[in-house]
């Protein structure tokens, strides 16, 4: 029996709906294994701006720091997207949270589930067997460089900088992950044009000697974008900087068949954070059509981080069971869709009911 504090940041749009299902699943795990998960919700994103004027209120940051792990839904609201003059934005909350908690590595696994192969717009024979993990640097690069308008107001800039140390720390995580998987690491960069990319290549090339069992490949991001669609099974671990990782992970989600299936873990110096890779999907808010599986699989990654591996395996098996039995939301099953709530309940009930002997 363990006792853990989980800070929950439901956020905006479909965030609260998918988070509720992940919390329900974590509660089922707690009951099934006799654990205690103290889960409290806190404001972040557009809802926090509405309530406090700040997308990341101090109380939320403090609660995250005091927790054993953080579970996040999604943030963002279209009213900010079309207003270039907005000074306060929901995304600033997320970026500040990542930076404040030192979450420098965002880990995004991409799997082609056999039962969903026909749901991807890509040919099944190309994607079958895809099993890759994207290690996206999360607290540096163009996202966090100096940005602004030129003095005369006619131009704008976003600086991209990286230090050796910023590259080293995430690269070590990626090399270790590759060593424990299929021993292949692909660095995705734009070293034919960008100086920061040349530094990434230099550092990774030097490090490769420390991981002789890992085969290292280097790909320019434009080519990588094509290869991910053309031949995704060639990838094992992809290591890349912040913005390239943002873009190629959305692209890679097409392989799984839906954005609503992809979880992520952000780890670093302090408490780790777990969130779906999808956004707040405001058009779907309140309709009960959002896929909760990305949030539920993020909860599975959270359990693994807390070293509750049997518990995590059970969540994964329950998700597989839902996929196999066609308990799918609208984007994957337009003719016979299940609601967000029904998918979450199916998975939570499966955990509550699962055979004692198999799991103890
Ligand atoms: C993501 C999102 C965020 C990002 C946004 C909401 C700031 O797209 O987590 O991938 O760009 O990192
Ligand atoms: Mn993104």
From TrEMBL:
<keyword id="KW-0560">Oxidoreductase</keyword>
<feature type="binding site">
    <location>
        <position position="222"/>
    </location>
    <ligand>
        <name>Mg(2+)</name>
    </ligand>
</feature>
<feature type="binding site">
    <location>
        <position position="250"/>
    </location>
    <ligand>
        <name>Mg(2+)</name>
    </ligand>
</feature>
<keyword id="KW-0963">Cytoplasm</keyword>
<feature type="binding site">
    <location>
        <position position="136"/>
    </location>
    <ligand>
        <name>substrate</name>
    </ligand>
</feature>
<dbReference type="GO" id="GO:0005829">
    <property type="term" value="C:cytosol"/>
</dbReference>
<feature type="binding site">
    <location>
        <position position="98"/>
    </location>
    <ligand>
        <name>substrate</name>
    </ligand>
</feature>
<keyword id="KW-0432">Leucine biosynthesis</keyword>
<dbReference type="InterPro" id="IPR004429">
    <property type="entry name" value="Isopropylmalate_DH"/>
</dbReference>
<comment type="subunit">
    <text>Homodimer.</text>
</comment>
<dbReference type="InterPro" id="IPR024084">
    <property type="entry name" value="IsoPropMal-DH-like_dom"/>
</dbReference>
<feature type="site" description="Important for catalysis">
    <location>
        <position position="190"/>
    </location>
</feature>
<keyword id="KW-0520">NAD</keyword>
<feature type="binding site">
    <location>
        <position position="246"/>
    </location>
    <ligand>
        <name>Mg(2+)</name>
    </ligand>
</feature>
<keyword id="KW-0460">Magnesium</keyword>
<feature type="site" description="Important for catalysis">
    <location>
        <position position="143"/>
    </location>
</feature>
<comment type="similarity">
    <text>Belongs to the isocitrate and isopropylmalate dehydrogenases family. LeuB type 1 subfamily.</text>
</comment>
<keyword id="KW-0479">Metal-binding</keyword>
<dbReference type="InterPro" id="IPR019818">
    <property type="entry name" value="IsoCit/isopropylmalate_DH_CS"/>
</dbReference>
<protein>
    <recommendedName>
        <fullName>3-isopropylmalate dehydrogenase</fullName>
        <ecNumber>1.1.1.85</ecNumber>
    </recommendedName>
</protein>
<keyword id="KW-0100">Branched-chain amino acid biosynthesis</keyword>
<feature type="domain" description="Isopropylmalate dehydrogenase-like">
    <location>
        <begin position="5"/>
        <end position="347"/>
    </location>
</feature>
<dbReference type="GO" id="GO:0051287">
    <property type="term" value="F:NAD binding"/>
</dbReference>
<dbReference type="GO" id="GO:0003862">
    <property type="term" value="F:3-isopropylmalate dehydrogenase activity"/>
</dbReference>
<comment type="pathway">
    <text>Amino-acid biosynthesis; L-leucine biosynthesis; L-leucine from 3-methyl-2-oxobutanoate: step 3/4.</text>
</comment>
<dbReference type="GO" id="GO:0000287">
    <property type="term" value="F:magnesium ion binding"/>
</dbReference>
<comment type="function">
    <text>Catalyzes the oxidation of 3-carboxy-2-hydroxy-4-methylpentanoate (3-isopropylmalate) to 3-carboxy-4-methyl-2-oxopentanoate. The product decarboxylates to 4-methyl-2 oxopentanoate.</text>
</comment>
<dbReference type="Pfam" id="PF00180">
    <property type="entry name" value="Iso_dh"/>
</dbReference>
<feature type="binding site">
    <location>
        <position position="222"/>
    </location>
    <ligand>
        <name>substrate</name>
    </ligand>
</feature>
<dbReference type="GO" id="GO:0009098">
    <property type="term" value="P:L-leucine biosynthetic process"/>
</dbReference>
<feature type="binding site">
    <location>
        <position position="108"/>
    </location>
    <ligand>
        <name>substrate</name>
    </ligand>
</feature>
<keyword id="KW-0464">Manganese</keyword>
<keyword id="KW-0028">Amino-acid biosynthesis</keyword>
